[in-house]
């Protein structure tokens, strides 16, 4: 019986490696400067890795990172700031393109409520100073449901409304099955791909080399966060292999 399941797993992985899940054109993300907005050091690799890898492969795109806290919930804020810079180097993002906020109103924590107006002011300052017209952040469900992640969406939405021609994309949150059983979910995605050729989202699938880069960014970059269960995320979670982005209309 074990051979049946192993064979099935290999077949699914084979299908997933050759099927292009791209839907709407990814190229619309390729602006001169693109900002990724997230809540904590390690969010960029745990959730946005395929997008970062895709953007970083285009030399005419400058990728910027705005991290709204230093992730100090466990008193490791100073270390985690350094880890973010190290992880970003895996995606060839220079330190000069990274800003990590240290605003007491945006403290890391499950019970911390972040004011979207405060966040919007920080984001607006960054995008106007750097002349950025496209940003990507969490959607309103924040992938893991973390309130700091959800707050990123509302802050980015408010900031984007203040800037002419600004485009905002969000990373789609999915349910448990899709989140943790990526390889099995590939079967469903292949079927959906056949049934519906016109979907209004962008799918970015990381290729083998990119997946390794994302894993390295987590394992080598964010060492303080590499407790045992993180390996489950790295090897099973959809977000290490694939990002689905949706444009926000406002
Ligand atoms: Zn986070």
From TrEMBL:
Source organism, top-level taxon: Eukaryota
Record field: transmembrane: none
Gene3D superfamilies: LmbE-like
EC number from the UniProt entry: 3.5.1.89
Residues annotated as signal peptide: 1-17
Alphabetically ordered keywords of this record: Signal
InterPro entries given in the database record: GlcNAc_PI_deacetylase-related, LmbE-like_dom_sf
GO cellular component: endoplasmic reticulum
Gene Ontology terms, MF aspect: N-acetylglucosaminylphosphatidylinositol deacetylase activity
Record family assignment: Belongs to the PIGL family.
UniProt-listed PANTHER family: N-ACETYLGLUCOSAMINYL-PHOSPHATIDYLINOSITOL DE-N-ACETYLASE, N-ACETYLGLUCOSAMINYL-PHOSPHATIDYLINOSITOL DE-N-ACETYLASE-RELATED
Protein name in UniProt: N-acetylglucosaminylphosphatidylinositol deacetylase
Organism whose genome encodes this protein: Schizosaccharomyces osmophilus
Gene: gpi12
């Amino acid at each position: 019986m074990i051979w049946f399941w192993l064979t099935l797993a290999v077949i699914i992985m084979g299908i997933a490696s050759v099927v292009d899940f791209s839907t709407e054109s990814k190229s619309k993300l390729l602006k001169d400067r693109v900002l990724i907005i997230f809540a904590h050091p390690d969010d960029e690799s745990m959730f946005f890795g395929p997008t970062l890898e895709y953007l970083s492969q285009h030399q005419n795109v400058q990728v910027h990172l705005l991290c709204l806290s230093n992730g100090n919930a466990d008193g490791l804020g100073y270390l985690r700031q350094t880890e973010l810079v190290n992880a970003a180097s895996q995606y060839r993002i220079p330190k000069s393109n990274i800003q990590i906020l240290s605003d007491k109103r945006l403290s890391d924590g499950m019970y911390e409520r972040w004011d979207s107006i405060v966040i919007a002011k920080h984001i607006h300052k960054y995008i106007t100073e750097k002349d950025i017209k496209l940003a990507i952040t969490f959607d309103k469900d924040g992938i893991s449901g973390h309130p700091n992640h959800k707050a990123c969406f509302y802050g980015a939405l408010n900031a984007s409304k203040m800037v002419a021609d600004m485009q905002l994309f969000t990373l789609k949150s999915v349910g448990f099955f899709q989140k943790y059983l990526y390889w099995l979910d590939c079967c469903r995605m292949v079927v959906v791909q056949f049934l519906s050729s016109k979907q209004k989202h962008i799918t970015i699938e990381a290729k083998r080399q990119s997946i390794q880069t994302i894993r390295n960014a987590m394992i080598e970059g964010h060492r303080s966060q590499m407790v045992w269960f993180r390996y489950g995320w790295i090897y099973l979670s959809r977000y290490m292999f694939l990002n689905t982005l949706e444009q926000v209309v406002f």
